[in-house]
TrEMBL record:
InterPro entries: cNMP-bd_dom, cNMP-bd_dom_sf, RmlC-like_jellyroll. It comes from Pedobacter westerhofensis. Pfam families: cNMP_binding. Residues 30-113 form the Cyclic nucleotide-binding domain. This is cAMP-binding domain of CRP or a regulatory subunit of cAMP-dependent protein kinases. The lineage of its organism: Bacteria, Pseudomonadati, Bacteroidota, Sphingobacteriia, Sphingobacteriales. It comes from the Bacteria.
Length: 189
């Protein structure tokens, strides 16, 4: 819980009574590897904060191939925020890549926090902006770099993930086949 409070306090000032109120609305959710936090075709149920584990945002292309868009690890928020807020069906999946432990907030509780704490919308707006900037920073180089450089950038940005998540997901994220990925890894060693 301390990591969660420390995280949100980076984006605004809250007193103890306010942070206690926020944490009183949080529930703990544990997901096993490969379970979904949010599924395409269903309305997202929660906003989550990852305490332990890694999730990935993914979708299936028109060939039925599983495409990883990005990863989110510990001490970060995870949600399909736009669809969660609007309460409309998601078009992508959020899947646990490892066993995960999260703090989660239902739509009702999330709205109650927003209606109770003055300035909460500003804090969540800054958090969302920060998450989007991180995503853009991580994805932009993937368009212009060669596969080896993309992999080296991945290792630099996510030093602890390479040994925690399936290589097939990393290859998908990098936009290369598993065979090419194996060759790149072999050449780097």
């Amino acid at each position: 819980m301390k990591e969660f409070i420390d995280y949100i306090l980076q984006f605004g000032n809250l007193n103890k009574q306010q942070t206690d109120f926020i944490t009183s609305k949080a529930k703990t959710l544990e997901l096993h590897k490969d379970e979904y936090f949010s599924e395409a075709g269903k309305i997202p149920r929660y906003v989550g904060f990852i305490i332990e584990g890694v999730v990935r945002f993914c979708y299936y292309n028109n060939k039925g191939e599983d495409i990883t868009q990005y990863f989110v690890d510990e001490n970060n928020f995870v949600s399909d925020q736009q669809r969660f807020e609007a309460q409309v069906v998601a078009s992508e999946y959020i899947q646990a890549v490892t066993d995960c432990k999260m703090l989660v907030f239902s739509k009702k509780d999330w709205d109650e926090i927003g209606n109770t704490i003055l300035g909460w919308d500003n804090i969540t707006g800054l958090i969302l902006k920060n998450c989007l900037l991180k995503t853009i920073e991580r994805r932009s180089p993937l368009v212009s770099e060669d596969a080896t450089t993309r992999y080296l950038s991945f290792i630099e940005q996510f030093p602890g993930l390479v040994n925690r998540i399936p290589l097939s997901h990393i290859a998908s994220y990098l936009g290369i086949t598993q065979q090419s990925f194996s060759r790149i890894r072999k050449n780097i060693r």
